[in-house]
Structure formats: structure tokens, C-alpha cells
Amino acid sequence: VDKNLINSYQNNNIINTVLFVGQRNGYKRFDLAISAIKKCPDLILGIVGPKLTNLEKENLCNNLGTRWQEYGPVENEILRYLYTLSFALIFPSDYEGFGLPILEAMACGCPVVAAQKSSFPEVGGDAALYADYQDGENYSEKLMQLYISDKRNLLIKLGFEQYKLYTWENTIQMTMQHYKL
Length: 181
Known about the structure:
Structural class: alpha/beta
Radius of gyration: 16 Å
């Protein structure tokens, strides 16, 4: 791991960072992440994925000022580090086949705020907070709930348990059980 990269992350107060991981086009609803962070003045948006376009940077500056950090595409070891030190993962996508970042975050002790859509409630179970509506206000309200330390700590604990349901060993066992029926 590049020590300079880690030092730069540590110097950016990553504990106040809400991560957005992945592509940012259409149904991924990057706009909701920006809108939610705009309403939470103590938080910054950390962006992991393809390099930002000039238009995206302009939009971020117009809405968040300097309260955003581009990490770009990162290796898995750095992504784990980012999840571990972040305040939360925001996952407002309208649809995914599974939602792997939800489990990645939980495995690293990072609370999750996700859409109440697609497979997310099944994947995250009771270990995530779900936005009832696809609007920035609802996501910001869920993020604000994480300021209650007992709530945040409970979600971290539940996240570790939820993640264990999706190990390769458990997946193989469930698949074998399914085909025995």
C-alpha cells in the first residue's frame, strides 16, 4: 500500500466522510448522495470510482464547496481502509443485481444507508438504514440518525453479523441445500 496515499487519507478527516462507491451514472443516483451531504454540514462526500468529469467537479463545488474528496479508482486494500475509517456508506442506487458495496462496508465496520429498493433490504437486512423515498432529505435524515452513537454502534455490530451470512462457504451450503429439495 502506498503510505503517502494513506497519509493523505488520514489528513482529510476521513471519519467525517460518507463514501459513495462505484459508477455515478443515471440509476446509481449520485445526485442523491450530493443532495444528502449538502444537508449535513459536518460531513464530506468521499467518492470512489472512475475519475470525476469536469462537469461533476463543478456540480460538487456548486453544491458542497470543499466538502468532497475524490479518491478515484482504488485497490481493494485501500477500499477496505476507506470503509473502515468512514462515517458511513451511502448507496442510493435505484437498482442493482445484488449490491456488493453494502456487504463490503459491513465487513469493514462501516454503517450503511441505502435505498429501500431492489435487493438491498435482503442483502442488508436489519443492519442498514433504508431511505423511504429517493430524495436527498430522506437520505440526510438517515445519516443524521448515525450521530446517535448507540444506533451507529448497533448497526456496526449487526453489519458484522449480516456479512457472515454471505460468506462463500454459506453461499455454497445454501445452494447445495436448494438443489437437494
